[in-house]
Amino acid sequence: MIVKFDHITYTCATAYEDDVKNMLPQYKVKFKEKNLFNIEIKNELMNKKQKYHNITMLYKDKGLPIELTTYDSCEVDSNVFNLSDTVISINTANKEKTEILLSDLGFNKETNNSDRWVLHPILDNVDILVEIKENNSEVISYLDANGFTSIAFIVINSSKYRQRLLKLGYQVSEINQLIVNNKELSIFFLIGYSGEIIEFISIKNNEGI
């Protein structure tokens, strides 16, 4: 069960970090981590080998958290996700399969908008809105691409949630551990039909959820 939306990731080369922050003037820095080792499960989701990365967690009132992730270089542009105010859009080559994915994650279709789906995790005070946009052009999906590259959710138990997704037939990574902001995280990724990269995180002892 998803209990909280953690962030949407925006990725760029480290040299352009300040430029991206200037694009988000209402956001404030919650914490920053430098030279984090890239966990093994990320390798197959990268355009090129990247040993380290930096992250800056950005927050604003009544907005979705953004994790600004930077690498030495980002050579391609991502076109799967986008963020407009508080609505996440997903570009997909198969609207039906993306709808099934959202349904399996607990989203419900909005009654007055057939392209928009909503999730209200129990630990969030705002709805998570996702809009599906069918796009038959090539989808570029890498964690080290420029732009919005993935979305991340908090679950209580990564292992159990991963097993649930496997039984539903989804492609998922193994689980790796990483310490971020003094919290021990268990992380895995799901790769959707159109290249949607979705990160699932559980926190040791559920501290700080």
UniProtKB/TrEMBL annotation:
Source domain of life: Bacteria
InterPro entries from the UniProt entry: Glyas_Bleomycin-R_OHBP_Dase (IPR029068)
Protein name: Glyoxalase-like domain-containing protein
Organism: Anaerosporobacter mobilis DSM 15930
